[in-house]
Write a structure and sequence with these properties.
This protein has helices at 2-31, 33-59, 65-99, 101-137, 155-170. It is an all-alpha fold and 175 residues long. It has a domain at 102-175.
Length: 175
Amino acid sequence: MTSDIAHDGLRARISRQSEDALGRLAQELLESPLVSGALSRAFEAREKAAQAQEVAMGALNLPSAGDLERLTRRVRSVSQRLEGVEDALDRVDERVGALGGAGALERRLDAIEGQLSALGAQLVELAGRLGERLEPAAPAAAAAPAAVTPARPRASRTRAAAASKRAAARRPPAA
């Protein structure tokens, strides 16, 4: 057992000494002007080789790694924008669906116009009945202003105006 402890201690001491020696050697090599000059020239040569490779690939009309990376970023950006547009279109589609679409809106407007026409006709009829009842009962009504004058229904003009507005909206703008 003492031999194992001594063996582990010897191994740890040798390991520490070799790490220290390697650290001193690396430090001396980095401080050497010859080695640091050689390293800087090697890095400059590497940079020039990369530039030459990029120029050669450009001359052959082949994309470089940097070109591919820029293209990838651009495609990712376009993809995100497209997702935003799709989300906005989905919201618009939901709103149009909630309204019942353009056809439902047209039907609703037509129904409202029909109801207005019917109300106008009823008003004309009521005004006619009131005029008949007032004339025999009051002969002096000619001197006084008329109580209710029957008006012509304007539903046909209103419907025609609405139809012309819809037709104008459907026409393409003049160039």
